[in-house]
Design brief:
Elements: E1 3-12, E2 15-25, E3 30-34, H1 41-49, E4 56-61, E5 64-65, E6 76-79, H2 91-101, H3 106-119, H4 135-148, E7 153-157, H5 165-182, E8 185-190, H6 193-199, E9 202-207, E10 210-215, H7 217-222, H8 227-232, E11 237-239, E12 242-244, E13 249-252, E14 260-270, E15 273-280, E16 285-291, H9 292-298, E17 305-310, E18 319-320
Parallel strand pairs: 3-8, 3-9, 6-7, 7-8
Antiparallel strand pairs: 1-2, 1-4, 4-5, 9-10, 11-12, 12-18, 13-17, 14-15, 14-17, 15-16
GO cellular component, one term: ATP-binding cassette (ABC) transporter complex
Keywords: ATP-binding, Cell membrane, Hydrolase, Membrane, Nucleotide-binding, Sulfate transport, Translocase, Transport
EC number: 7.6.2.9
């Protein structure tokens, strides 16, 4: 079900957490609230959940004004970063908790819990305590518990932030598959750009309490609204007076070729990529990312003379630098 956030503002004393934020979250989509720590993402999520009350503006859920509704009246499921599990209850009882307090029939509870444990691949751990599970398993249990009451909206606050990189990657893939199965409108907070780009249908970039841009991962990466979005959503380097993606630059060893003349200062291998740092003749430092095969074909090394230019056919990902912050947020249409 869709969520409409209209002109929402929130202060904590003199600190402006949200400044006149308006966002439309489409029904059935997986939407990421992305931005740096302290930017207002979690505050906005908690206002949607009813755990915080906005000072100004309104929140509609399913076309109903939920601005003053308590959390239990909003039919949202909420998953915190640190699981908030009932330590003395088994996995099965944790998942069943929301149904039990709603006094659903026992047979219905048993069937629903069995279905959810199978969905999150925890059926063999049903009788264990949370302390006997891994971090990834506990987070899957928390998601099952949130889904048990069949919420119209699922809210996730940095759900994988407390996990190591490998487990986070596994859970990102799992969350995307899970969402495609259950199709519940899902909003998750993250400051991890890769996580948002990989998992979300739509991304809302929030910084200093304001919306910088809204759009699909491709929209934001290839057509950033401003310098902040471009820098936040991926690697950036500067060539002349333009900000560009390092992988959109092309190197040539032809001394008479097209491009800015420079000299290789450093070569770094990062997995399957080669990062080449250059110093141009006008003293500018430029970073170019190549595949291993591209690098080997060039036959360059530290102190080699090269020419660098924006690769023909590259998407329009340049933003003039330095760019001033706009007076009002620039919103890109959702793709």
């Amino acid at each position: 079900m869709s969520i409409e956030i209209v002109n929402v503002g929130k202060r904590f004393g003199d600190f402006v957490a949200l400044d006149d934020v308006s966002v439309s979250i489409p029904s059935g989509r997986l939407t990421a609230l992305l931005g740096p720590s302290g930017g207002g993402k979690s505050t906005l999520l908690r206002i949607i959940a009813g755990l915080e009350r906005a000072d100004t503006g309104k929140v509609d859920i399913e076309g109903v004004d939920a601005t003053r509704l308590p959390p239990q009246k909003r039919n949202v499921g909420f998953v915190f970063q640190h699981y908030a599990a009932f330590k003395h209850l088994t996995v099965r009882r944790n998942v069943a908790f929301g149904l039990e307090i709603r006094k659903r029939p026992k047979d219905e509870i048993r069937g629903r819990v069995d279905e959810l444990l199978a969905l999150v691949h925890l059926e063999q751990f049903a009788d264990r305590l949370p302390s006997q599970l891994s971090g990834g398993q506990r987070q899957r249990m928390a998601l099952a518990r949130a889904l048990a009451v069949e919420p119209t909206v699922l809210l996730l606050d940095e759900p994988f932030g407390a996990l190591d990189a490998k487990v986070r990657k596994e859970l990102r893939d799992w969350l995307r598959r899970l969402h495609d199965e259950v199709h519940v409108t899902t909003v998750f907070v993250t400051h991890d750009q890769e996580e948002a780009l990989e998992v979300a249908d739509e991304i809302v970039v929030i910084n200093e309490g304001r919306v910088e841009q809204i759009g699909s991962p491709d929209d934001l990466y290839d057509r950033p609204a401003n310098e902040f979005v471009m820098r936040f959503l991926g690697p950036v380097t500067q060539l002349g007076d333009q900000l560009v993606r390092p992988h959109d630059l092309q190197l040539s060893t032809d001394p008479t070729g097209i491009g800015v003349l420079g000299r290789v200062a450093r070569v770094t291998r990062i997995g399957f990529e080669i990062r080449v740092d250059l110093s141009t003749t006008d003293g500018q430092s430029v970073t170019v990312t190549l595949t291993r095969n591209e690098f080997l074909a060039l036959g360059i090394q530290v102190d080699s003379e090269v020419r660098v230019r924006l690769a023909p056919g590259s998407p329009a990902t340049t933003v003039s630098a330095p760019a001033a912050r706009p007076a009002t947020p620039t919103l890109a249409a959702a793709g």
